[in-house]
Amino acid sequence: MTTPRERAPAATRVLAVDVGGTKFAAAVIDADGTVHARTEEPIAGAEPVEVLRRVVTMAEPAEVAAVAIGSAGPLDRARGTVSPVNIPAWRDFPIVDTVAGWLPAVPVLLAGDAQCMALGEWWRGDRPGALLGVVVSTGIGGGLVLDGRPHLGSTGNAGHIGHITVDPRGEPCPCGAVGCVETFSSGPAMVRWARGQGWSGADARRLADDARAGDAVAVCAFERGAEALATGLLTTAALCDVDRVVIGGGVAAAGDVLFAPLRGALEGRRGMAFLKRLCVEPAVLGRDAGLFGAAALALSPG
Amino acid sequence: MTTPRERAPAATRVLAVDVGGTKFAAAVIDADGTVHARTEEPIAGAEPVEVLRRVVTMAEPAEVAAVAIGSAGPLDRARGTVSPVNIPAWRDFPIVDTVAGWLPAVPVLLAGDAQCMALGEWWRGDRPGALLGVVVSTGIGGGLVLDGRPHLGSTGNAGHIGHITVDPRGEPCPCGAVGCVETFSSGPAMVRWARGQGWSGADARRLADDARAGDAVAVCAFERGAEALATGLLTTAALCDVDRVVIGGGVAAAGDVLFAPLRGALEGRRGMAFLKRLCVEPAVLGRDAGLFGAAALALSPG
């Protein structure tokens, strides 16, 4: 198995860029994981392309061997374009060509934000084996590290655990399918369901607080979300034979309110022997997982 | 992308072994796909280990660079053991050590039969890109070829599409989960459902004949199986971002009786753009796909 640490010369530095729906971040990171510079800017009230230019041009072209961008999706890896749901001004925005224009002669790589989160947790979280990373937040995203390298997929879209059908009688999903994991387990989905049962809060943070305090509807909303997520995790484990699942994102930050019913839902359903060893763990890198994952993408392009 | 043809010297010959539930086959195959010798023996009425010895020792150790075995499962790749459901005498049978004892100094590799089918269809079926191979038969098995190489998984169990839950209210599966693809789409599952609806035939071949002749219950049994299988294929495509699905096995040999409702079930549900390009094709190599796949495993161990 080849890890980024083994493959890249220790002196290699790359520029990692995290394109989120509300802020952009960038960092110069070297092959042993040291962060040499880091910057971050909200995009509210600004031209997104100007914010991107400012965070990217913190690095001199001579300073870095590559630029790697982890971006909110959808994205088209072949064309190097992104259309982040929360940045309406960017539809098929040519982010790779744009960044390449600012840092000439430096290769520019692109992957999804959840793919980068998975890769970052694998690399800097020191997680051996094959891994599924899941971001449970406004949506549900995922990324796979298989055989010691990121599995991005033929079109760059591997890891879409949020949009697999776990209940054929579930509600329609904006993606076009029905009963997707995201329609049960995302923050807005749990809030929507709880409000339909008479809960009167506004957001997932409040729902988590109420579940922690024992509110029956809030507890049930998390149990329902955990059940669908458990199906998605077991499905991924059966198909990809991963060793561990790492879960991050705003809703996962609620901790046991999500992890306790999730572990409960998994326990009764790990049929096949190789599924019994699957570990489910909270993410450890927090908001920098995506930056480290983007760096790992550039340091180990294989 | 690296193919076995590019990686192995053309003169390399390997012994490919196919361990099925009712017969064993073996062939000496070289790096350009030429079959130099082939043998096959039923196991009914014989000691399975004696049948194995006869098909394996057709090759001289000096003649082959490796032995690769594709076996019915379950199997444990790390320990080199197999427990094929239809060979009760073999439970945790140490097939790798046994074969290594007969052909000293030759490396022995092991993978699942459906994994080898997928790899064989990818290699000799000349199928570019990433591929899911599915065997629809008495059970449902699968195998993945990702990034130009077999993805066998951390424990060697990747590709278990037959045992992912596609309906949480489905019937219990012997694997321990509920509503698995196999409980809807295998030959016995479709027969069982049809008999519950008043159909009086005995097996999947007859069910396919009756569906072809327009029997309403038989048609509906295949539609129901195709619907669950479609969910499994779309799930795999969303998670692994494969380019194509190749379907083989005894039930798939029924042709349009399965493929027509399968394509119909897929059409309405390809939500995300990257799913729209997924091709679903019948297998072309027939019963030798597993032998070619085992050969490819040995010729390109990467």
Fold and architecture overview:
Two copies of one chain form a homodimer. By secondary structure, chain A is of the alpha/beta class. Chain A folds into two domains: 4-117 and 288-299, ATPase, nucleotide binding domain (Nucleotidyltransferase, domain 5); 128-283, 2-Layer Sandwich (Nucleotidyltransferase, domain 5). Chain A contains ten helices and twelve strands. Chain A has helices spanning 4-7, 48-56, 95-102, 113-123, 182-185, 187-196, 204-212, 216-240, 256-267, 289-299, and strands at residues 13-19, 23-30, 35-42, 66-71, 75-76, 81-82, 108-112, 131-136, 140-146, 149-151, 244-248, 279-282. Chain A has a five-stranded mixed sheet with strand order 3-2-1-4-7, sandwiched between helices. In chain A, a hairpin with a 4-residue loop joins strand 5 (75-76) and strand 6 (81-82). The radius of gyration of chain A is 19 Å and the shape is globular. Chain A starts with a helix and ends with a helix. The model of chain A is unreliable at 1-10 (pLDDT under 50). At the A-B interface, strand 9 and helix 8 of A face strand 9 and helix 8 of B.
- Give helix and strand order of chain A, one letter per element, not per position: HEEEHEEEHEHEEEHHHHEHEH
Low-confidence stretches of chain A: 1-10
Kindly report the average pLDDT value of chain A: 92
Largest interface: A-B, 48 and 48 residues
